Task: inverse folding
């Protein structure tokens, strides 16, 4: 059975007194064990798709269906989705002043454990759990005693997202441009974190607009999102082709724009 | 006009001067305020003449005063002649027999705050054996303090047993002429707390009104006086997180603190008076005057307050930094939800050299709540190298509430450094969503964000209190984010 099945998803947002359609019928099937990359130029709707899957209420789903593990995902609250193993690494993680980063992560872990009927972790067990993961991600200990994301650099925020993912061990991880703003070393570390999570039960959806990340995390499927629609799907070679030819090539390929304009 | 009225009243009331003796036989006193009533109060409390005189001076002065109108709060006029200014302490038989007789809403909140049953009984004034426990705790507590020479008792007991100390310090920080509500309090105050920490003594435990057996019925006009003698240290806790209801709408308390050379006083308050219903009906009006005087050099007074209750909060715990090198601090969290209004802040008056003050104010508004910070930093001519740092942050939850900041500064000495920062932020939908995406409920998310916002204040509270204060905040803001 598919872990995630998106059928003809249409999403709009109400902005400045008018409705704007962002996703115009997206369909996608993700099986356990798979890695899917979703690529597309800025503004094509990648973050909107990620956030709708995570349950953001600022967006209106006007049509379509999303099944997660066979259940109606759209009927669940954001926290239910999270507790059932849906994780979103945010493109722009929120800052929470005054709330200790370790405390926050512990609260998240225990919320998920509670949902599963498992006993909550005490401070000692929790430390053991996350110390190792932190080392693997080469994260500075000082980040853990600071307020959540406050004053973090772009790269530190992204690593923090990956640390949370590593500790929470989701079944479906959606990574929204986790690669942007990372230098090559950081990129490698983050990729290792993602690869470590790879398993036959889990699936990963990588949102990116560079193929760079895909050198380190090799996807099974690549999809191109353009103006709210998946216009092309293929294997990992599609990403390379995109890299070489740019997004205009796709548009041309689709017969939307004449060949000379694409050059 | 008020002057002549007062004059007339004074004359007409003269004839009651000697009439009070027979009146004390009964336990009811007439509604309203007059010299006769004040004499009655003083007589019922068997006060020495100096107290009666002080009360009468205050009353006469009060007649010349007008209720202040500058604050950013709105309420129906208070009829001072409709109130009853003295109520005999409740006897055992008037008290509720068990918790079953307590308002279920109050009990629900007790449970949410996690207050143990026995404590609930004490707090609710239940007349059962549970009180015995607290009496014995309080007794050992008092014995230990007594060995160190610390005096900690009700104000009435202090007047009776330590009249010289009371005479010396009463009104020395908040004079009976101070302001409308403080003056009213001076005339009619019922009871309150008194603490004296002798030279060089570091008070080994938190002094709290909770431990005072007769704290239950201090009433609407409470008066507290704390004196820390040279080199002593004390931490005092006022109030508790449990919700408090009272049939008296107006509360006008006065707190005076005196710190002599090298003494430190830390005064922490959690105020959770009934705020009224969703429309603000029936809530307490809390008009409080709190002031500390750093009289000695290198002394320190620190106010920490968590204000979640009351329909109206009007309160400016202040420090007079008279001694050289003295320090004043003010840490405040004020929450207004539904129709609550708070106008609160502090005054830091720098008189001595090298005096320092810190102000951290966190205002949280939800529902139709209105939250005003009002602060004054005054640096007098002689306050060479005085320093102040103020930070006022407001957090808004929703679109129908308000936050206002009025920082006043008067600097008369060029070597002074005064720094002020202010922020206003709305609780972010993105922050709440971020927390929920990690598995926290919307309510837990809001609590976490709000507690983070208040952290700089909560860490000033004694440990146990801080935990309770966090819970209290979540109860106060329940349902304020949909
Ligand atoms: N909350 C919003 N209000 C109005 N417009 C939005 C909102 N969120 C996204 N959009 C618009 O939707 C389009 C897709 O945005 P987004 O999903 O962030 O794209 P991507 O992540 O692919 O760069 C953009 O045109 C963006 O401006
Ligand atoms: Mg995006």
Result:
């Amino acid at each position: 059975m598919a872990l995630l099945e998106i059928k003809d998803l249409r999403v709009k947002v109400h902005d400045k007194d008018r409705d704007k359609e962002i996703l115009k019928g997206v369909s996608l099937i993700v099986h356990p064990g798979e890695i899917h990359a979703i690529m597309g130029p800025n503004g094509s709707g990648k973050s909107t798709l990620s956030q709708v899957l995570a349950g953001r209420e600022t967006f209106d789903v006007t049509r379509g269906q999303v099944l997660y593990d066979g259940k109606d995902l759209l009927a669940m609250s954001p926290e239910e989705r999270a507790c059932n193993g849906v994780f979103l690494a945010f493109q722009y993680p929120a800052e929470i002043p005054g709330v200790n980063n370790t405390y926050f992560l512990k609260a998240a872990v225990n919320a998920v454990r509670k949902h599963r009927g498992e006993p909550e972790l005490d401070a000692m067990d929790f430390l053991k759990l996350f110390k190792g993961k932190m080392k693997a991600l080469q994260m500075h200990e000082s980040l853990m005693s600071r307020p959540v994301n406050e004053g973090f650099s772009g790269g530190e925020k992204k690593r923090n997202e990956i640390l949370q993912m590593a500790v929470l061990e989701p079944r479906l991880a959606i990574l929204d441009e986790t690669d942007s703003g990372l230098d090559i070393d950081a990129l490698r570390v983050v990729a290792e974190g993602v690869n470590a999570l790879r398993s036959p039960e889990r699936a990963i959806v990588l949102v990116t607009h560079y193929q760079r990340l895909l050198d380190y995390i090799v996807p099974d499927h690549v999809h191109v999102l353009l103006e709210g629609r998946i216009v092309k799907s293929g294997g990992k070679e599609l990403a390379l082709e995109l890299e070489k030819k740019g997004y205009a090539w796709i548009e041309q390929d689709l017969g939307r724009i004449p060949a000379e304009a694409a050059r | 006009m008020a002057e002549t009225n007062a004059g007339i009243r004074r004359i007409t009331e003269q004839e009651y001067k000697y009439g009070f003796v027979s009146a004390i036989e009964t336990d009811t006193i007439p509604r309203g305020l007059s010299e006769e009533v004040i004499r009655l109060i003083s007589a019922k409390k068997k006060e020495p003449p100096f107290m009666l005189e002080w009360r009468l001076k205050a009353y006469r002065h009060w007649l010349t005063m007008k209720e202040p109108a500058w604050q950013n709060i709105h309420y129906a006029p208070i009829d001072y002649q409709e109130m009853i200014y003295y109520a005999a302490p409740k006897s055992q038989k008037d008290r509720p027999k068990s918790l079953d007789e307590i308002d279920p809403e109050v009990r629900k909140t007790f449970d949410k705050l996690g207050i143990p049953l026995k404590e609930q009984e004490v707090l609710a004034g239940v007349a059962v054996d549970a009180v015995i426990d607290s009496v014995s705790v309080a007794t050992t507590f008092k014995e230990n303090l007594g060995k160190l020479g610390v005096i900690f008792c009700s104000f009435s007991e202090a007047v009776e047993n330590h009249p010289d100390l009371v005479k010396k310090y009463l009104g020395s920080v908040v004079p009976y002429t101070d302001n409308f509500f403080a003056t009213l309090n001076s005339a009619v105050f019922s009871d309150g707390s008194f603490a004296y920490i002798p030279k060089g003594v570091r008070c080994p435990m938190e002094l709290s009104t909770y431990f005072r057996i007769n704290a239950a019925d201090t009433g609407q006009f409470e008066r507290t006086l704390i004196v820390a003698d040279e080199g002593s240290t004390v931490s005092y806790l006022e109030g508790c997180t449990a919700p408090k209801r009272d049939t008296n709408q107006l509360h006008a308390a006065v707190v005076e603190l005196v710190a002599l050379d090298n003494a430190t006083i830390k005064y922490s308050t959690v105020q959770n008076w009934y705020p009224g219903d969703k429309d603000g009906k029936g809530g307490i009006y809390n008009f409080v005057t709190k002031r500390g005087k750093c009289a000695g050099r290198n002394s320190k007074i620190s106010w920490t307050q968590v204000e979640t209750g009351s329909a109206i909060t009007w309160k400016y715990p202040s420090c007079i930094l008279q001694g050289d090198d003295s320090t004043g601090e003010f840490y405040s969290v004020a929450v207004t939800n539904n129709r609550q209004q708070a106008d609160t802040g502090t005054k830091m008056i720098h008189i001595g050299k090298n005096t320092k003050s810190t102000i951290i104010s966190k205002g949280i508004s939800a529902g139709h709540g209105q939250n005003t910070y009002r602060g004054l930093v005054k640096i007098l001519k002689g306050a060479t190298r005085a320093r102040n740092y103020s930070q006022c942050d407001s957090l808004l939850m929703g679109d129908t509430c308000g936050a206002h900041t009025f920082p006043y500064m008067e600097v008369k000495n060029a070597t002074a450094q005064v720094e002020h920062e202010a922020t206003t932020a709305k609780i972010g939908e993105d922050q709440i969503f971020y927390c929920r995406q990690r598995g926290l409920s919307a309510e837990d998310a809001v609590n976490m964000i709000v507690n983070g916002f208040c952290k700089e204040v909560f860490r000033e509270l004694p440990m146990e209190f801080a935990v309770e204060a966090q819970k209290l905040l979540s109860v106060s803001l329940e349902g304020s984010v949909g």
